[in-house]
Amino acid sequence: MSGNYFVKRVGQAVLTFFATVTLTFVLYQMMPGGPAEALRNVILQQQMGSGNTIDPARIEQLVAQYTNLESDAPIYVQYYQYMSSVFLEQDLGESLYENTAVTTLLADRIPWSMLISVYAMVIGYTGSIVLGAVMAFKEKSRFDSVSSVVVIGLNSTPYYVAGILFIFFFSIRNEFFPTGGRVGLGVEAGFNVAFMQSIAHHAALPILSMSVLGLGAALTMRGNSVRVLGEDYLRVAELRGLRNSRIATQYVGRNAVLPMYTQFMIGIAGVLSSSVIVEQIFSYPGVGMLVYEAIQVRNYPVLMGSLIVFTLVTVVAILIADLTYGFIDPRISAGGDNE
Amino acid sequence: MSNDQEGLETLFDADIDREPVPRSQRLKRQFDLYVAAPCRVAMTDWRALVGTVIVAVFFLMGTLGVWLVDKPSSGDAPVLEPPFQNFDYILGTDTFGQPIGAQLIHATPDMFKMVIAGAVVSVGFAALVGVVSGFLRGTTVDTTLMSITDIIITIPGLPLVIVLVAIFQPESPYVIGVLLGLDNWPGLARTVRSQVLSIREESYVEASQIMGLSTGTILRRDVLAQLMPYITVNSALASRRIIFESVGLYFLGILPFTTFNWGVMMNIAYEGNALNRPDMYHFLTFPLLTIFLMSFGLVLFSQGMDSVFNVRLRARHASTIDDDGGHE
């Protein structure tokens, strides 16, 4: 049964990825005038400076080089070529400006985005789970009502507004943290303490502002915990004389967190998405910044490549979460499908 | 009301000889149950009250406000006038001499257009997919719909929207709203589906089936009525999300600057280094506050609606339902 589950989930992940790559192909085709026409203008502009005239055949060739699309071939041939270059050659095309492969550009940036996204998720969700649990435990107390209002307030603050406020208070008014960049000037790269510290120092504010995204979960956690606290089995556990810590983690915690699982999974995509705006505010050179720069100059191959890679990361993250979920919730691997 | 329902009422009513309720009486009862009682519940719940007031103020800004306040243009007033000094431009002016208050007001209608287009499309689509898939559980339709939903859940929304915006350069607020709503529906569709699944198991749905009511009637009367709270609450949350994302995209300068928008103002202020210039603080602060207030209002509204839709609370506040006649 669990082998079946594994195969099903992996199959679903592969299908999702395949669908996204197809989607980028469709998007190229949906560009006004098709990919060749859309890119021709960009290429002409770019070649204008070099002074040499280029013939249409050369443009065709360049378009093919940048996007993996041979725009004069029939559509199914184009589709086959595009898909095979992505899946078989891991080739996402070439940037219109830097003369580098999109995959190289992305590989440089991805670790930095992952760093801030993963920490933001962990901090945001851990914080909200703990806060929600405490709020439920002290239900109807002053702490509960005050933190409810605070959480609703934070929930109404867009993460980029939080980012701007953080920069203002922690970088400009008080120079606790740098306003941008990912590592200090003159810090030697490598596995040494100064480098690590500099990275953490630069990543702190982006991580904090992205973790605001996860805070809405505190109210869900509070609601779930309140519901669990009223259940009969909890009373039984108390009567059995179990230790409070065991009741809190094994009984309340576990049953309150499990229903939030889907929310976490959708959250993975959301946190990665938000990096586009957050990285621009903090001029943090991750994939989000790359997307931002690409959009200014209509660097379509980079845009499409980023979309593909963003999806790949999300698909893998959700797959891992999905497969490990069976360990936490035995009902899933037992084949129950009543979400 | 339909015929079969009247038939059922006579079937299950103990005193058949009772006078039929006059039409005006019935309308009054329905008004009490569906309009007056929710209002009374809302009055007792501060979140619903504050949320409704905030949303209503924004609505007035977008309708009356636009009509009362002239559209701002460059050079209307001195450049970078500080706030609360001059009554004509109470929130001060920006670097082009446009009054900030007037800009905030004139950005509201487009915001509402985006929100309405986005929320209607995403919530409507989610409800449709969720209900159909939940009711046809286990069939090919269900499997196909849910596979598509799972795929779209996984694609990160903002990068996709950015690519779409880059290609199509939409200017109409309705189109922008729909694009932003696109990545919003799958999560809700899943929630609706699981709600439908659990409602289907309820005994009253089974009772309706045994009584031979058509699927359409059951869907409308038993299922949709139960789903309304979720749909309303999620519409408010979807609106908040669309506001966040559209303002964010305007702030980044990715959406074309064709209209007044809070995000455009933030962009101009931020790019103008407002964080380091005390004379520009108000230019950045007021748009920030506006976004915060609007989403605060929507979040409160959605939470307040939770209690308004609570059947027990509503019954307690309805004056046409006898207190002593219940079977508590």
Automatic annotation (TrEMBL), chain A:
It is found in: Cell membrane. InterPro entries: BPD_transp_1_N, MetI-like, MetI-like_sf. The chain crosses the membrane at residues 12-31, 112-137, 149-172, 199-219, 264-282, 302-321. The keyword Transmembrane helix applies. One of its GO terms (biological process) is transmembrane transport. Gene3D superfamilies: MetI-like (1.10.3720.10). Keywords: Cell membrane, Membrane, Transmembrane, Transmembrane helix, Transport. It is a multi-pass membrane protein. It comes from the Archaea. SUPFAM superfamilies: MetI-like. GO terms for cellular component: plasma membrane. PANTHER family: OLIGOPEPTIDE TRANSPORT SYSTEM PERMEASE PROTEIN. Belongs to the binding-protein-dependent transport system permease family. This is ABC transporter permease.
Automatic annotation (TrEMBL), chain B:
The chain crosses the membrane at residues 48-69, 114-136, 148-168, 247-269, 281-302. It is a multi-pass membrane protein. It is found in: Cell membrane. GO terms for cellular component: plasma membrane. Residues 112-302 form the ABC transmembrane type-1 domain. One of its GO terms (biological process) is transmembrane transport. It comes from the Archaea. Pfam families: BPD_transp_1. Its main location: membrane. Keywords: Cell membrane, Membrane, Transmembrane, Transmembrane helix, Transport. Belongs to the binding-protein-dependent transport system permease family. This is Peptide ABC transporter permease. It comes from Haloarcula mannanilytica.
